[in-house]
Fold these 2 entries.
Entry 1:
Amino acid sequence: MGCLGTENLHAETKRLMVVELLKGRDTATRLRALLQDPRRRQDPVSAEQLAVDIFRSFSESLSVLSSCVDVGSAQIPVVDSGGSSSCSGESKKKPAGVKDRRGCYKRRRTADSWVTESSTMEDGCAWRKYGQKVILNSEYPRCYYRCTHKYEGCKATKQVERIKEDPIMYQTTYFNKHTCKETLRAPHLILDLDPIEPNLISFQAPEAQDHTPTNPMIHPVKQESYKGDNLSEDQDQDLSDDQAKSSLLQDQWQEFMGLESSGYKPVWTTMIMSSSYQEEVASAGFHHSSDDQSAGLHGLDLEVDQLADIDNIFPLF
DNA sequence: GGAATTTGACCCTA
DNA sequence: TAGGGTCAAATTCC
């Protein structure tokens, strides 16, 4: 199981998770306060930023967690080797006059990476493809993308690969955070339900809503293809199960946000934990109540609300 | 015409 | 030395 090797690293991992989850809870509380105050509701930039921050906190936590838990097919990252040289600076053969920067890279070894799975390659950021490789023992090629703002200094890159067991899904591995402003652009990501960035909770008037669940997932939260075509009967069944769970989650979210009475409802984003991951988590010692049919939300609630008891939730640390 | 993608070559890491 | 990550010229797209 690719767990970090020392007690100190486990403690550090746990600390990072707690920090990120607390940050997310705090930001969610601020967002609730913001939305409950009609005088502040007209401030979309604030709400948007808070929603982005919440999303980021959970992404970070899942990234930290996944670095310790081998969950399903996702291959999770690699611990920072700490300081190998990044560029040899050497170039042996190059035609005269040709600037040769080849070889100026290091093999991926960074803690600043995380994995997502999604039914779409899109994630709302501007990427430029710079390579594609056939990978040994992999049916599908791996595509390499970097931020379009690379030359402004943004070091964000990602690798996208179809999932062998579920080819309608893409596994995306991100490396380095955006240092450009790219991730903060595009208000539609929040204010409209946009399949391009459905991870973000969208707030808009009910009549403008499209309830199609479209969000990709940050591993290990799973979402089925929203289009519904090319789905087997089993997949259709899974989808309707997920939709039922989504409905329950939506009610609980609205209760948490205090939005129901105001008629101001978020476009719900499906955050369903895959059954396989539920089993993984259960086998790791985490059990939710037997009448709990919405494992996704409850799992997350426990992570957020019972941080003091995190040792019981993640005894493997 | 500029931006994005494709693709073969290069070269580092394991 | 094989595999994987990146480069950059050629090609395609808008």
Entry 2:
Amino acid sequence: HSKSVSARSAACRVIVHVDLDCFYAQVEMIRNPELRDKPLGVQQKSIVVTSNYEARKLGVKKLMSVKDAKEKCPQLILVNGEDLTPYRETSYKVTELLGEFCPLVERLGFDENFVDITEIVEKRLKQLQQSGCSRVCVSGHVYNNRAINLHDTTHVRLVIGSQIAEEFREAIYARLGLTGCAGVASNKLLSKLVSGTFKPNQQTVLLPESCQDLIRSLDHIQKVPGIGYKTAKRLETLGVRNVCDLQAFPSAILEKELGVSVAQRIQKLSYGEDDSPVTPSGPPQSFSDEDSFKKCSSEAEVKEKIEELLPNLLDRIYKDGRQPHTVRLTIRQFSSTDKWFNRESRQCPIPPHLIQKFGKESSNVIAPLVDILMKLFRKMIDVDLPFHLTLLSVCFSNLKDLPSSKKGSIGFYLKHMSPPSGSGK
DNA sequence: TGGGGTTAT
DNA sequence: ATAACCC
């Protein structure tokens, strides 16, 4: 299929980036509609991680401390969002809904998805051409208000893309009650950048002629998705502060500083070029649960925390149906300097006899897992010396499908039956 | 600064 | 196992 596309005309992908508005806050407003017209923040520990637009109007910004938020906005209502279950479940409903339109859906975090709609666009373009119809109308905004040229097939493809993006957003609202933004462009980078240009619940299409305007509108290089904190700092040392600096910087020196791979990739990004494919995410590669706290300093406390984390995790794995073959323990040790970003981890294979028991009924898989995790803990920490942890995290990965021999069993069907629909009356 | 995720080395 | 990136 993709071969027929590129054979007919210059390769032009059409990518949609879908970005839900203040996602956690929206989920909470659906769970409790009384919060709908009030300023709402979602709290994790001492941080407001997201707020609705009522709260934003009153000055509550993302990742603000609860203290500052309450000062700015005393009427702010806070709900605890430390348990991600409702957000995770809603998030996958959105991805699955997009998957009904098209198989190429890639998740980015819980609230963003990329969709490669090239094939859908080609199909609609053919239908239009066969019906002799030359009238196509753009849906939503056009970046920089650029004029559309209907004789330019790239323009026409992107306009069709804007219509499909509108259908995505309408479906997400009709079926899940969620609003969001969308950006339509010829690659992932540009679709993501353009989706944020009109902000809540609107969409924007980028025409190729405006690509340089969009990428150069970024005031700092760290705004380029793919250039993170570390790379931005190193670029700063080289005197590279904005996108134009990066475009013009000698590639040879960049390659020496960052390595060929990173240098070439980010320099292409600075021109708005991004040939990375939309890679279908499929089911998750790992399941993890973590908790942060002020202090944990004894083996007994560590064991308690791990025992708190496991039931939720095992439940998620049970519902997923696959079996994990690796388990990992991650810790963060207190340090006054370098306060952030000192995590260590140890992982090991899960013994085969334990793996078998994952899918089964309430067999006690917890006790042996706690044992394994405590051994991993002792590989990192000498428990005879004082220690001070501020985070514990357990992660199951290396997920494998059940052996097919087991899949026809009665247990399998009981487990994966969806509950009866309707009231049952 | 939370509580998650991914890929590359 | 860590380091980088993303939200």
